[in-house]
Amino acid sequence: MENKRCLEFEKNPIQDAISRIRFAPASNNLLISSWDTNLRLYDVDGSKLTFEASGDAALLDCCFQGKTAAFSTGSDCSITRYNLDIGTSKNFGNHDDLATCVEYSEETGQVITGGFDKKIKCWDSRSTKPLTFVNTVNVAVESMSLNGFIAMVAVGTSVNMYDLRKFSSSYYSKRVDIQIKCVRPYLDQGFAAGSYEGRVALKYFNPSNQNKDGYAFRCTPMAKDKQHNMAAVNDIVFSPSTYGDFITGDNDGYVTIWNAQTLKNPNSPSSTKFHQILPKSCKSSSLSPFQVSNMSDEEHQFESKADAGASKTFPQQAGTIRKNGYIVIKNRACKVVEVSTSKTGKHGHAKCHFVAIDIFNGKKLEDIVPSSHNCDVPHVNRTDYQLIDISEDGFVSLLTESGGTKDDLKLPTDDTLLTQIKDGFAEGKDLVVTVMSAMGEEQICALKDIGPK
């Protein structure tokens, strides 16, 4: 490809994964936040570093505030503001857990942040008491994007939309059936959401056919064994010059250009236009739409809703997994009881030390993972069933929602829970048991006494 330009990092290399890349609104400057705790500003034309600020924690996002200021969010819950002209930084505010995303609105002068504390915060960047509003949601905020006065916020498997002029509640919410990693606006037509499992969903606000309000597809290539890689889609960028074109970048370093119009037809040969694998040194959680080359013959595949969520696990960055969350260690579904993170060394990654308990057998397991690397996280589900019978060999018969029976579970091994179930059943009580399932394994984990029969 002609006119390629490369930024040189040899004198001051980035020591860990890049979390976000932003182009300046009115110049050819590049703002980069990284898990190595540094925010850097590069002059692309001069191929030189013009600003660098180091912190105490990994930076998870960044954005510009006009030409001379910037913001970042950190794994220590902090929001930091930087003066790019004089080279200073100061704390701007905090979340109660990881601060995951930050956006600045030119239209309103607001700074909007989200975090794992399940809060969306609005700040007035011009005030000495900047916090103006807090909105609490049901789950952690993973990603956020602005489109004029509209804020798109990714929470779990839904995208909520807010009007920045009236932020008290969302005016629109759309479920997309994927665990969202990033969300980006698609002009004024809808949005694109990338998932931890390597899928992208495009949704429209006003579809011509209500039964076809969008579609989802896998954007990770199929390996030689015909199995899909489960690399998280870290970022999506729509082309400012070619209508319908957008780029996806995943955690394995694949960068691919797609066209939203031809993607409506899964069999269209032009739905995937270009494809490139980035070297390890270029992998990041964010991308900008420039420099891609002709695609290889890798296969990409559309899927139905029935395929979505079929995986037993999904990938999540180690540095974002918290106490009481879940993680897979030695192929076992575990609950995290303790997590500690070491600081980034001179030549290495910050590392997370996990102490966890197997959710089925109670055994203690430990693992150490670089904070910017992905861990497998199990899909853990809980379902309530009414207890019908207990057989002599210890199997239970449970009533399902459809009126059938489930007869493949044994009584729990926990002595206290076992005694409660046996005694309650012997007394003729109506009992409801909670069955926990993960990674193809099931077990009765709780009991509810709903009274005598």
Automatic annotation (TrEMBL):
<dbReference type="InterPro" id="IPR015943">
    <property type="entry name" value="WD40/YVTN_repeat-like_dom_sf"/>
</dbReference>
<keyword id="KW-0385">Hypusine</keyword>
<feature type="domain" description="Translation initiation factor 5A C-terminal">
    <location>
        <begin position="379"/>
        <end position="448"/>
    </location>
</feature>
<dbReference type="GO" id="GO:0045901">
    <property type="term" value="P:positive regulation of translational elongation"/>
</dbReference>
<protein>
    <recommendedName>
        <fullName>Translation initiation factor 5A C-terminal domain-containing protein</fullName>
    </recommendedName>
</protein>
<comment type="function">
    <text>Translation factor that promotes translation elongation and termination, particularly upon ribosome stalling at specific amino acid sequence contexts. Binds between the exit (E) and peptidyl (P) site of the ribosome and promotes rescue of stalled ribosome: specifically required for efficient translation of polyproline-containing peptides as well as other motifs that stall the ribosome. Acts as a ribosome quality control (RQC) cofactor by joining the RQC complex to facilitate peptidyl transfer during CAT tailing step.</text>
</comment>
<keyword id="KW-0396">Initiation factor</keyword>
<dbReference type="GO" id="GO:0003723">
    <property type="term" value="F:RNA binding"/>
</dbReference>
<keyword id="KW-0853">WD repeat</keyword>
<dbReference type="InterPro" id="IPR020189">
    <property type="entry name" value="IF5A_C"/>
</dbReference>
<comment type="similarity">
    <text>Belongs to the eIF-5A family.</text>
</comment>
<dbReference type="InterPro" id="IPR008991">
    <property type="entry name" value="Translation_prot_SH3-like_sf"/>
</dbReference>
<dbReference type="InterPro" id="IPR019769">
    <property type="entry name" value="Trans_elong_IF5A_hypusine_site"/>
</dbReference>
<dbReference type="Pfam" id="PF21485">
    <property type="entry name" value="IF5A-like_N"/>
</dbReference>
<dbReference type="GO" id="GO:0045905">
    <property type="term" value="P:positive regulation of translational termination"/>
</dbReference>
<dbReference type="InterPro" id="IPR036322">
    <property type="entry name" value="WD40_repeat_dom_sf"/>
</dbReference>
<feature type="repeat" description="WD">
    <location>
        <begin position="92"/>
        <end position="133"/>
    </location>
</feature>
<dbReference type="GO" id="GO:0003746">
    <property type="term" value="F:translation elongation factor activity"/>
</dbReference>
<dbReference type="InterPro" id="IPR001884">
    <property type="entry name" value="IF5A-like"/>
</dbReference>
<dbReference type="GO" id="GO:0003743">
    <property type="term" value="F:translation initiation factor activity"/>
</dbReference>
<dbReference type="GO" id="GO:0043022">
    <property type="term" value="F:ribosome binding"/>
</dbReference>
<dbReference type="Pfam" id="PF01287">
    <property type="entry name" value="eIF-5a"/>
</dbReference>
<dbReference type="InterPro" id="IPR012340">
    <property type="entry name" value="NA-bd_OB-fold"/>
</dbReference>
<dbReference type="InterPro" id="IPR014722">
    <property type="entry name" value="Rib_uL2_dom2"/>
</dbReference>
<dbReference type="Pfam" id="PF00400">
    <property type="entry name" value="WD40"/>
</dbReference>
<dbReference type="InterPro" id="IPR048670">
    <property type="entry name" value="IF5A-like_N"/>
</dbReference>
<dbReference type="InterPro" id="IPR001680">
    <property type="entry name" value="WD40_rpt"/>
</dbReference>
<keyword id="KW-0648">Protein biosynthesis</keyword>
